[in-house]
C-alpha cells in the first residue's frame, strides 16, 4: 500500500537530492509507517533555510514532494488552487491520505481527499486554537477560531484518527463513532533509566539544577514564564539555582529578560544537543525539569526527562496533564503557581525523589516496544476496514 503524508513542515533538499529536517521529521520517523505501507509520499514545504544542526529525513521507500507555492499567507492565498492540483496528482496512487493536524496543508489535503473519496487518517498532534493564540500576533488570534472549526470538522469526518494524548485532544476533537481511533504518541523512547541507576545526589545537592529544552525562537515553550517564576523566589533559594537552557535559535531575548530579572548569573545556555545520548546525559544531571508551555501536543522533552528520572512540573496544556502528577500542574502562564511548585520541591527533597521514581514508571508506555504493539494493532484494524471497503 502507498501512504500520502501531508504537513506544513519545511524540509531542505540539497543539490544531491538529500532531504533534511530541522529535527521534527528524522529518518527513523518514517519507520513507524513503513511497517504497514510499502511506500510513502511526503508533501511538505520547500525550505531554502539551513541550520547548523539538521537531521537527514531522506529514507528508502520515501519520496518527498516539496511545494514552493507556500512560504507565506499571501502566497498560500495566491497559489491555493495549484497546491490542490499538486495534492490531487499525488492522491491518485495513494491508498491512504495521512494529514498531521493542525496544519494548513493538512486542511487543504483533507478537502482534496474528501472530494476524491480517499480514506483519510488524521494525526492530531495539538490544539489548533491554543497553538495559534499562543503566538501573540493579532492575525493568529483572529485565525484561531477558524482553524479550530475546520480542524473539528475534518476529524469528525475522518476514517482513522490517532491522538498523541491520552484524553485531552480526544475531548477537543471527537471522532465519529465509526472511525478507528487510537491514543498513539509520536514520542518514542528506547531506554528508561533503572531506579538503581538514579544519581540521588542530584536531588539532595545544595546546587539545584533546573532544566528546560525548547527552541529559543519558539516562545510558546514558556522560557519567559519560567524565568519570571524563578525571579519571585526568595534570595536564599535563588542563589542555589542553576538554570540550564537547551535549544537552537537566538536567545538574546532571554539574556535581556534575565538581566532585567537579575538572573543572568543563574543561567547557562547549552545550545542544541545533537544526539539522544547527549540529551540523556544532560537530563541525568537535573534536579528538576520544567515544561511551562503555552501550547503543546505531547512534549517529547518531557517524556525524555521522565525516562532519565527527572521529576517534572508543567502547565495544563496538551498532553502534559496526562503524564504529570496533578499537584505539580500549573495553569498556563501562571507565574505564581509555577513558582510555588518549584519552591515546594526545592524545600521537600524526599518528595522530589519520589517524583523521580514515579517519572520512570510513567515513561514505560512510551518505550518503542510498547508503542510498536499499539501501532500494529491500529494498522490491523485499519487494513481490515480498507480490505472490506
From TrEMBL:
Gene3D superfamilies: Glycogen Phosphorylase B (3.40.50.2000)
Domain of life: Bacteria
PANTHER family listed in its UniProt record: GLYCOSYLTRANSFERASE
Signal peptide: none
InterPro entries: Glyco_trans_1 (IPR001296)
Name this protein carries in UniProt: Glycosyl transferase family 1 domain-containing protein
Species this chain originates from: Aequorivita aquimaris
UniProt xrefs under CDD domains: GT4_PimA-like (cd03801)
Record GO terms (molecular function): glycosyltransferase activity
Glycosyl transferase family domain boundaries: 218-353
Taxonomic lineage of the native organism: Bacteria, Pseudomonadati, Bacteroidota, Flavobacteriia, Flavobacteriales
